[in-house]
Amino acid sequence: MLERRSLIEELNAKGVRLTAQRRALIEVIQEAKEHLDAASLLALARQREPGIDRATVYRTIELLKKLRLIDELDLMHLEGEKHYYEVKTRREHLHLACFRCGRIEEFSTALFEQLKDEIARQAGFAIRIARLEVGGNCRACAAAEEAGANRKPEKALAVAGH
Q1: What is the DSSP letter of 99?
Q2: What predicted TM-score, i.e. pTM, was given to this entire model?
């Protein structure tokens, strides 16, 4: 599978003007190793371009969404109305959201592709986008919770012994 061009290359190819502020923000989005909200994007972009403002962040996000270069994830169960952004990928994936630590993991499986094919076939529906979010505890938080459940409280044992 061919690698997708960078966001900067995509925007240059579309003739979009790139100011220093917009370029800094786009580089932050492109290089992100995790899903970021607008406030995080602004903070990281300011490290590269201190003069960037909130309006530039939101205008750039809207532009990238309109050009279908990024996806907006509405993971409301994590922290109220919190929207995260990620570079659009060629392969759709699931998002696993941890209720305990807030981490968001991406998960790809052939079963998701099979499910989309079955929906399209049975419903006669031309799917353009499919999003699925699964909430629970990530591996680390599940292990920590399990370890805590297996540990007996020392204070309770001391009281019970008297």
Answers
A1: T
A2: 0.65
